[in-house]
Amino acid sequence: MEFLWTIFEYLVVVGLVLVLGLGAAIVFEAFSRRFNHAHAEGHPIFEDPNSLKQVPCPYIFDPAEKYISLIIPAFNEEHRLPGALDETLNYLQQRAVKEKSFSYEVVIVDDGSADGTKRVAFDFVRKYTVENVRVILLGRNHGKGEAIRKGMLHSRGELLLMLDADGATKVDDLEKLEKEILEVAKRELGDSPDHDSSLRISDIPIAAFGSRAHLEERALAAGGNILITGSSFIPQIKPVHFMFQRKWYRNFLMKGFHLVVLLAAGPGIRDTQCGFKMFTRAAARKLFTNIRLKRWCFDVELVYLCKWFRIPIIEISVNWSEIPGSKVNPLSIPNMLWEIGLMSVGYRTGMWKIST
Questions:
Q1: How many Å separate Cα 164 from the centre of its chain?
Q2: What confidence tens digit (pLDDT) does each residue in 321-338 have?
Q3: Measured between alpha carbons, how far is 328 from 82 in angstroms, rounded to an integer?
Q4: What CA–CA distance (Å, rounded) separates 118 from 51?
Q5: How many CB atoms lie within 10 A of CB 216?
Q6: Which of 153, 189, 219, 312 is the most buried (most CB within 10 A)?
């Protein structure tokens, strides 16, 4: 009995040491990120691969030059990126033909890929010109949040859309988000008795989040089974219709993460993690000059900052398919919890100051 008690005391001491060590590590890391230049701040250089000349690099505080910018973070995506870009650029070109005032750019942010992602990205720059497609190279892997932040800060659009490199959400769903933002912007301008007639949509801070909450409800009701209908981006593969069992850890993340988000950022958004989000230029300016999280949970920080700035958030259901090759795995769980801990400590202690 005395031996068991000794083991118990030993385990308690070890547990306390681990908890205190983890707490100290979180506080130290949060403190080290109190200034935003903990991020990768090297000024990106846009190069025209056809002329080999450098192109002036825009910044989020510059006036908008395009109607919409699409920011695509890419890490080791040489196989999935080409199909997603083909679909995206086909849609954008067709819309530009129909709407003479419609202008666009696609900004691909290579997050330190070790495969042929860089080559694929520059192939599209050569094909569509540097005026419409641009590439930012981060050099080493910083995380999805940092890649999107970098792309947002150096885009030219009145509206800025972040979307994943796998094409899981159909690009034409951006019209759903765009429509809601336009409606909110019109109400904001119309409700102001002394509004400036020169104001544009880009001047009104608004965020629109694509949501898969309706699909998650179906998945949970079906015991984790999801019906996928769609087409593959791999050549010679016909459209598919199949049922598959969603991996256990994705269901675990889906259920547990909502609770963690509720505690960290508060209620209001059912799906924070969908990679399909649109911001006006004014909203992106406020949010992405303040964001500190670099990886999985930067979306949660976006929700927190939107609430702090009182930026309206619209959540809109989008069409979504689970594409093979996801980088979410069981190791994502501790990474997510780590970032949530950093955010909670950083903001609640006042270490992370928000620039207005």
A1: 8
A2: 766 656 565 666 777 778
A3: 21
A4: 18
A5: 19
A6: 153
